[in-house]
Design brief:
The chain has about 120 residues and is mainly alpha-helical. It has 5 helices and 2 strands, in the order H-H-H-E-E-H-H. A two-stranded antiparallel sheet has the order 1-2. Helix 2 packs across helix 3 and helix 3 packs antiparallel against helix 5. The longest helix is centred in the middle third of the chain and has 26 residues. The protein is globular, with a radius of gyration of 17 Å.
Length: about 120
Amino acid sequence: SMGESSHLSVLMEMENAMMRGGWTLDPHGQFRIVFDLLSVIALLYDVLALPIVLAWDVPNEGVLFVVTLCTIAFWVLDVILNFATAYYDSGVLVTDPIRVAKHYLRTWFALDVIIVFCSIL
Protein backbone atom coordinates (compact mmCIF):
# COMPACT_ATOMS: atom_id res chain seq x y z
CA SER A 1 0.00 0.00 0.00
CA MET A 2 0.95 3.66 -0.28
CA GLY A 3 1.61 4.00 3.46
CA GLU A 4 3.90 1.00 3.52
CA SER A 5 5.99 2.28 0.60
CA SER A 6 6.28 5.65 2.32
CA HIS A 7 7.48 3.99 5.55
CA LEU A 8 9.88 1.86 3.53
CA SER A 9 11.40 4.89 1.82
CA VAL A 10 11.88 6.66 5.17
CA LEU A 11 13.61 3.55 6.53
CA MET A 12 15.77 3.36 3.41
CA GLU A 13 16.75 7.01 3.85
CA MET A 14 17.70 6.36 7.48
CA GLU A 15 19.70 3.29 6.43
CA ASN A 16 21.52 5.31 3.77
CA ALA A 17 22.35 7.95 6.39
CA MET A 18 23.77 5.32 8.72
CA MET A 19 25.81 3.86 5.87
CA ARG A 20 27.33 7.29 5.25
CA GLY A 21 28.68 7.08 8.79
CA GLY A 22 26.36 9.49 10.52
CA TRP A 23 22.84 10.31 11.43
CA THR A 24 22.29 13.04 8.88
CA LEU A 25 19.20 13.45 6.72
CA ASP A 26 19.38 14.11 3.01
CA PRO A 27 18.03 17.66 2.50
CA HIS A 28 16.35 16.41 -0.69
CA GLY A 29 15.18 13.07 0.73
CA GLN A 30 11.49 12.18 0.87
CA PHE A 31 11.27 12.57 4.66
CA ARG A 32 12.74 16.08 4.60
CA ILE A 33 10.58 17.15 1.64
CA VAL A 34 7.38 15.98 3.36
CA PHE A 35 8.46 17.65 6.60
CA ASP A 36 9.22 20.91 4.77
CA LEU A 37 5.80 20.82 3.09
CA LEU A 38 4.19 20.34 6.50
CA SER A 39 6.17 23.35 7.70
CA VAL A 40 4.37 25.47 5.09
CA ILE A 41 1.04 24.43 6.65
CA ALA A 42 2.30 25.17 10.16
CA LEU A 43 3.62 28.53 9.01
CA LEU A 44 0.30 29.40 7.36
CA TYR A 45 -1.47 28.60 10.62
CA ASP A 46 0.96 30.79 12.56
CA VAL A 47 0.64 33.67 10.09
CA LEU A 48 -3.16 33.53 9.89
CA ALA A 49 -4.33 32.42 13.33
CA LEU A 50 -1.91 34.11 15.70
CA PRO A 51 -2.69 37.70 14.64
CA ILE A 52 -6.42 37.01 15.02
CA VAL A 53 -5.92 35.47 18.47
CA LEU A 54 -3.77 38.40 19.58
CA ALA A 55 -5.83 41.20 18.01
CA TRP A 56 -9.21 40.08 19.29
CA ASP A 57 -8.04 38.44 22.51
CA VAL A 58 -9.48 35.06 21.47
CA PRO A 59 -9.08 32.57 24.34
CA ASN A 60 -6.51 29.90 23.56
CA GLU A 61 -8.60 26.87 24.50
CA GLY A 62 -10.19 23.78 22.96
CA VAL A 63 -9.19 23.02 19.38
CA LEU A 64 -7.21 26.25 19.12
CA PHE A 65 -5.12 25.22 22.14
CA VAL A 66 -4.46 21.74 20.71
CA VAL A 67 -3.47 23.07 17.28
CA THR A 68 -1.22 25.68 18.89
CA LEU A 69 0.51 22.98 20.96
CA CYS A 70 0.95 20.88 17.82
CA THR A 71 2.57 23.75 15.92
CA ILE A 72 4.91 24.49 18.82
CA ALA A 73 5.89 20.80 18.99
CA PHE A 74 6.37 20.83 15.22
CA TRP A 75 8.75 23.81 15.37
CA VAL A 76 10.71 22.24 18.24
CA LEU A 77 11.05 19.07 16.15
CA ASP A 78 12.17 21.24 13.22
CA VAL A 79 15.03 22.65 15.31
CA ILE A 80 16.08 19.12 16.29
CA LEU A 81 15.92 17.86 12.70
CA ASN A 82 17.93 20.82 11.45
CA PHE A 83 20.82 19.61 13.61
CA ALA A 84 20.75 16.40 11.56
CA THR A 85 20.02 17.71 8.06
CA ALA A 86 22.98 17.64 5.68
CA TYR A 87 23.76 20.79 3.71
CA TYR A 88 25.66 21.82 0.59
CA ASP A 89 28.98 23.66 0.74
CA SER A 90 30.22 24.80 -2.67
CA GLY A 91 28.14 22.10 -4.35
CA VAL A 92 29.38 19.29 -2.07
CA LEU A 93 26.92 17.57 0.27
CA VAL A 94 28.23 17.78 3.84
CA THR A 95 27.01 14.81 5.91
CA ASP A 96 29.46 14.82 8.82
CA PRO A 97 27.20 15.20 11.90
CA ILE A 98 29.61 17.54 13.72
CA ARG A 99 29.99 19.85 10.72
CA VAL A 100 26.22 19.77 10.13
CA ALA A 101 25.48 20.74 13.74
CA LYS A 102 28.12 23.52 13.75
CA HIS A 103 26.77 24.88 10.47
CA TYR A 104 23.23 25.01 11.84
CA LEU A 105 24.45 26.71 15.03
CA ARG A 106 26.21 29.37 12.91
CA THR A 107 23.28 29.98 10.56
CA TRP A 108 19.60 29.55 11.44
CA PHE A 109 19.70 28.19 15.00
CA ALA A 110 19.45 31.49 16.89
CA LEU A 111 16.52 32.73 14.79
CA ASP A 112 14.74 29.37 15.03
CA VAL A 113 15.09 29.28 18.82
CA ILE A 114 13.84 32.87 19.18
CA ILE A 115 10.80 32.06 17.05
CA VAL A 116 10.03 28.86 19.00
CA PHE A 117 10.51 30.71 22.30
CA CYS A 118 8.11 33.48 21.19
CA SER A 119 5.55 30.83 20.18
CA ILE A 120 5.67 29.36 23.67
CA LEU A 121 4.97 32.73 25.26
